[in-house]
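Entry, Tuesday afternoon. Goal for today is a structural model of the target with magnesium ion bound, before we commit to ordering more compound. Inputs were pasted exactly as handed over by J.K., no edits. I checked the ligand SMILES twice against the vendor sheet because last time a stereocentre got dropped in transcription.
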Amino acid sequence: MKSLTVVKFGGSLTKNPEAQSKFLKELAGISRKQNIILVHGGGPEINSLLNKFSIESKFVSGLRFTDAPALDVVEMALSGKVNRALVTGLIKNKANAVGISGKDGNSVVCKQVKSLGFVGEPVKVNGKLIEVLTKAGFLPVIASIAADAKGNVMNVNADTLATAIAVAFKADKLVFLTDVAGVLDKNKKTIKEIKVKNIEPLIKDETITGGMIPKVKGCAVSVKKGVKEVWIADGVSGIKNIKGTVIKK
Ligand SMILES: Nc1ncnc2c1ncn2[C@@H]1O[C@H](COP(=O)(O)OP(=O)(O)OP(=O)(O)O)[C@@H](O)[C@H]1O
Ligand SMILES: [Mg+2]
């Protein structure tokens, strides 16, 4: 059986077109030998579209507050722009990429986190559609949107979505690619390895803040639930020549 790697491509990397195209070329190559599920965010694209619509961007502990008008824009940015661009880049490199979101095929069912507006927390993964795609040799590219049990659309943090998918599919490896070389200490140096029990203290003493919080929390959950290899790594270096932080039990 082929191994499965879930890759979360940070929206933060879409600001770096060179890194993005280098990564997509590398991923297309890897996808010929391994099963890959690609999950992506879209922070900068969302911010820039919200700006065009004169809607303010608000964050609570690294998670985006999403009201109804913002939700429309979030979906437009993620499924309409970032997802399309990633699929285009992959098919240019001869990968059988198919763009979906967590909503498609009810792949990820979420529960609303009311304090954040139309933001969902994954509660169930229905693996059918993603499984059908991977088994048939397609590379699913998943935008971080999902629906709740009643079909209400929600914005889901892409790190949290990637974690839910990696756990549900018992992935061999989960890699969060972002715009920094892993988790940095207070002197901005990469922490090479972090044990799950040391994550909370690093959040408490504010070494880890903002968008890094859902990532390390996702790492903790996935390591505890059996994903064998978990990384937060530099999107510029990519996967084969990985540079970043490995999270261990
Ligand atoms: N200790 C830390 N080490 C590294 N980065 C940190 C740390 N604490 C906070 N950060 C911030 O986390 C950011 C990465 O998270 P961010 O959500 O911005 O990007 P992303 O998840 O790759 O993109 P997206 O959310 O659009 O998918 C870094 O650019 C950095 O500013
Ligand atoms: Mg993020």
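Residues 6 and 112 are 24 Å apart (CA to CA).
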